[in-house]
């Protein structure tokens, strides 16, 4: 299985991957608490970006409401923990099932009735918005008052209940991100992955070749939504509080997709490098403004907009493809211009 996954991957690419992974594993040894929290945020967006990239980058279906699946995963696991004492690892499969069911409903309504392009994007926003409104009035999860997870001062890390220090959360999100990367690599090189790419490039031509576009688009949204739910579980237990206005807010969806767009939609490394550059630079900018006593609301959003504008104008395929060519990595990871 491993040999099959690694077949055709250049040796120097494997060495670069191993070096990057070694640096990430060792990072908490040298980083202070603040840097660890920044790395957690970067890896969180790298993970959610990979999940979104399956639907848009691989299958060509633009979703602008992926915060929906994060929110469903977060609220499901948090509610099970608060009301029944069910730990996050047991609650995670339930969260995944609920997110998958919601993704399947959206996909069926869109793909069965030919809703595509910008209209599919609007449909995902609509589902996210009316879910936010519903949770605002859902008393079982405290509605707009916010759902708070119990927090205790632990002398040790409790991995079973995800209670502990930031370093523990760092290794959890690192493991999730690595697993997502491997999964995306396997999917991209599978028959399903090739069908997705055919649909992305020309759906009518793919259909004429006998590819069931409805079936494979449904597979893409089901995998993408289910893969996003664990990020919601992580979010709930890391931040310990959930508010519908924040969790399902459309800007959360925009933050998820910016990394892959800037890094390179449809590539394996795009979501990762995009998250590192965008989140890392935005946090550095915030620290710089704070150091000079400049409290500038919205500076981070302006920075995101400027980065997106520059990349779209200068590197429309994202930052990763030219880097991949420079490093002589596998061209199959980069989309055609």
How would you sum up this structure, described in words?
The chain has 337 residues and is mostly helical. The protein has one domain. It is built from 15 helices and two strands.
Give a brief description.
This protein has 337 residues and is mostly helical. The protein has helices at 2-6, 11-30, 33-58, 67-84, 88-112, 117-136, 166-188, 191-201, 203-208, 213-239, 244-247, 250-263, 270-291, 299-314, 320-326, and strands spanning 147-148, 241-242.
Question: Which characteristics define this entry?
Answer:
337 residues; mainly alpha; two-stranded antiparallel sheet; 15 helices; 72% helix; disordered C terminus
Question: How are the secondary structure elements laid out?
Answer:
Elements: H1 2-6, H2 11-30, H3 33-58, H4 67-84, H5 88-112, H6 117-136, E1 147-148, H7 166-188, H8 191-201, H9 203-208, H10 213-239, E2 241-242, H11 244-247, H12 250-263, H13 270-291, H14 299-314, H15 320-326
Antiparallel strand pairs: 1-2
Helix pairs in contact: 3-7, 3-10, 3-12, 3-13, 4-5, 4-10, 5-10, 7-10, 8-10, 12-13, 13-14
């Amino acid at each position: 299985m491993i040999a099959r996954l690694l077949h055709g991957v250049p040796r120097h690419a494997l060495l670069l991957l191993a070096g990057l992974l070694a640096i990430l594993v060792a990072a908490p040894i040298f980083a202070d608490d603040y840097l660890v929290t920044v790395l957690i945020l970067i890896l969180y967006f790298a993970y959610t970006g990979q999940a979104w990239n399956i639907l848009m980058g691989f299958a060509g279906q633009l979703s602008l409401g992926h915060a929906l699946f994060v929110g469903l995963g977060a609220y499901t696991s948090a509610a099970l923990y608060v009301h029944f004492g069910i730990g996050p690892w047991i609650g995670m499969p339930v969260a995944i099932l609920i997110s998958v069911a919601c993704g399947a409903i959206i996909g069926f309504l869109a793909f069965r009735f030919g809703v595509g392009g910008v209209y599919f994007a609007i449909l995902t926003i609509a589902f996210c918005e009316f879910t936010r409104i519903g949770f605002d009035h859902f008393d079982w999860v405290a509605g707009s008052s916010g759902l708070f997870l119990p927090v205790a001062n632990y002398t040790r890390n409790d991995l079973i209940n995800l209670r502990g220090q930031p370093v523990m959360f760092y290794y959890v999100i690192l493991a999730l991100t690595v697993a997502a990367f491997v999964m995306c690599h396997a999917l991209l090189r599978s028959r399903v992955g090739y069908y997705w790419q055919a649909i992305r490039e020309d759906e009518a031509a793919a259909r004429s070749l006998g590819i069931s576009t409805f079936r494979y688009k449904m597979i893409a949204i089901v995998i993408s939504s289910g893969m996003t739910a664990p990020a919601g579980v992580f979010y709930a237990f890391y931040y310990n509080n959930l508010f519908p206005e924040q969790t399902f807010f459309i800007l959360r969806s925009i933050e998820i997709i910016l990394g892959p767009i800037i890094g390179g939609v449809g590539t394996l490394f795009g979501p990762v490098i995009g998250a590192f550059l965008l989140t890392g630079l935005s946090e550095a900018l915030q620290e710089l403004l704070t150091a000079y006593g400049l409290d500038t609301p919205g500076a981070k959003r302006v920075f995101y907009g400027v980065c997106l504008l520059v990349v779209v104008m200068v590197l429309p395929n994202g930052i990763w493809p030219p880097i991949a060519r420079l490093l002589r990595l596998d061209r199959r990871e980069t989309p055609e211009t």
